Amino acid sequence: MKGFLFIHNYYHSISFVQTHQSMEFIKVTEQKEPFVALVELNRPKELNALNRQLMVELLEALQALDKNEQVRAIVLTGNEQAFAAGADIKQMADQSAIDMLMVDQFSTWDMIRKTKKPIVAAVSGFALGGGCELSMMCDTIIASETAKFGQPEIKIGTIPGAGGTQRLTKAVGKAKAMELILTGRFLSAQEALFYGLVCKVVPVEVYLQEALTLAKEIAQMSPIAVQLAKEAINRSFETQLDEGLAFERKNFYLTFASADQKEGMKAFVEKRKPHYTGK
């Protein structure tokens, strides 16, 4: 509970929450300084199972934060028991293939993927099925020692549908992804760290604080440079090396059109801390 007491003292509710009273399954809080927002999945009785309403609310929250100049980095979390234990199976169990096609639930996921600002996932407990896929859509993952990752869809007669076969393979390699997806076996936090799925594993008492600390560090950098770097890293998964290098160089040159680049290099020469404005 220490991590959550830390958050209680560290954050305050923002106007976004006040103007979106209809949000039932998402909580958003923002720190005045230094530009970090916290987004919490809030279906604790269902272990944060991802129903369609929750995903729509999450999209609305992330789109609003993407436009908020007072936010430079985002932390996405659930609670100590579960980041998200999967999709809401009750919503899908009786659906036909055409029903699922017409609902087009993955269009929401596609739009979430377009979030420009960096997202740090703070994962404790279960991150399974859609929960694992959602954590992998974030830009990096801080995990508690109790975190468990997995794509157990095979156990209920289906397969991952929100990117699990693609992102997990890119994160842990073909052989391990095959094992996990074809058996539905869970990956422990330490295994996830070993295979490169997460960047850090910490005690459950501090996992959220660690994620916020990382987000705070990122938020101190030039927002323009952070966005361009995120784009270039993500492009590496979609292109061959030559094309990826060309994209990286384009974004590198683009940073020289920003006031932040001038300030950063001037501050380095003058041996002082830079003050970035996102311009």
Topology of this protein?
Layout: H1 2-10, E1 12-13, H2 15-18, E2 26-30, E3 36-41, H3 52-67, E4 73-77, E5 82-84, H4 97-103, H5 106-112, E6 119-123, E7 126-128, H6 130-137, E8 140-144, E9 148-150, H7 164-172, H8 174-183, E10 187-188, H9 189-194, E11 200-202, H10 207-219, H11 223-235, H12 241-255, H13 259-270
Parallel strand pairs: 3-4, 4-6, 5-7, 6-8, 7-9, 8-11
Antiparallel strand pairs: 1-2, 2-3, 9-10
What do you see in this structure?
By secondary structure, this protein is an alpha/beta fold. It folds into two domains: 2-219, 2-enoyl-CoA Hydratase, Chain A, domain 1, CATH 3.90.226.10; 223-270, Orthogonal Bundle (Lyase 2-enoyl-coa Hydratase, Chain  A, domain 2), CATH 1.10.12.10. The protein is 46% helix and 15% strand. The chain contains 13 helices and eleven strands. It has helices spanning 2-10, 15-18, 52-67, 97-103, 106-112, 130-137, 164-172, 174-183, 189-194, 207-219, 223-235, 241-255, 259-270, and strands spanning 12-13, 26-30, 36-41, 73-77, 82-84, 119-123, 126-128, 140-144, 148-150, 187-188, 200-202. The strands form two sheets. A seven-stranded mixed beta sheet has the order 1-2-3-4-6-8-11, sandwiched between helices. It has a four-stranded mixed beta sheet with strand order 5-7-9-10. Mean pLDDT is 88; it is low at 1-20.
